[in-house]
Automatic annotation (TrEMBL):
GO terms for biological process: chiasma assembly. This is E3 ubiquitin-protein ligase CCNB1IP1 homolog. Residues 149-174 are annotated as: Disordered. It comes from the Eukaryota. Residues 165-174 have a biased composition (Polar residues).
Length: 224
């Protein structure tokens, strides 16, 4: 048998209440001194509602009582014993539930902390992704602008690469643009002596140039 207040094993004498519970002498004294109530039923107890009992009677006393005990008293004794076992089982269950609840609270606190950390990391990565998206948009705009500028310069360069040949009859100046591997060479020519041949000075070789009909063919000096 165990005390219904502290749930320690009862040895020797104990206190029985009229509400059907057992208390150790220490807990019974505390309840009486503080005008307290039964720890199970919350019923206010007084000294008249408590009776001392012997937890471990000797065999002689048990045999003597067993001869004269009535069936009603025996039934009440058995029910009292069953009630004590049920209270003990309920106490153990409550203690197990309390321990499980405490463990669950600890686990929940840990998971809550981890969840907050994960949420903070998620928000940080989301902000970083937004920044990277904006950076990619800016890079795409810069790329498009550079492509447009490059296309414009390429068109202008192809226009210059088309080449241009001009001739005037004043002093016989002649301009020709020759292109080789996209390198532009501009040649200026000056007349030296009348001649029916065209050649470069200093020794430069070129293909024959056809002159306009209103320009005399003269000898040219190359000036770069």
């Amino acid at each position: 048998m165990k005390c219904n207040a502290c749930w320690r094993e009862l040895e020797g004498r104990a206190i029985s209440t009229t509400c059907g519970h057992l208390l150790c002498t220490e807990d019974a004294s505390k309840i009486l001194s503080n005008d307290g109530a039964c720890p199970i039923r919350d019923r206010v107890l007084s000294k008249s509602l408590m009776k001392p009992v012997d937890i471990n009677p000797n065999d002689e006393w048990v045999n003597m009582v067993g001869r004269y005990i009535s069936s009603d008293i025996a039934y009440r004794s058995v029910m009292f014993y069953i009630g004590q076992k049920e209270l003990e089982m309920q106490y153990k269950m409550n203690r197990i539930v309390a321990q499980c609840r405490q463990k669950c609270e600890v686990i929940q606190a840990k998971f809550t902390e981890k969840l907050e950390q994960v949420h903070a990391a998620y928000q940080k990565m989301a902000k970083r992704c937004q920044m990277m998206e904006r950076e990619m948009e800016n890079l795409s705009k810069d790329k498009q602008e550079l492509q447009e500028k490059f296309a414009e310069k390429s068109r202008a360069k192809r226009g210059h690469m088309a080449g241009k040949t001009s001739c005037s009859n004043g002093n016989g100046s002649w301009e020709q643009r020759s292109w080789s591997s996209l390198r532009v060479w501009k040649w200026s020519w000056q007349p030296l002596h009348d001649s029916t041949q065209l050649h470069f000075v200093p020794n430069q070789t070129t293909s024959a140039l056809s002159s306009p009909s209103n320009v005399h063919i003269v000898r040219w000096k190359l000036v770069r």
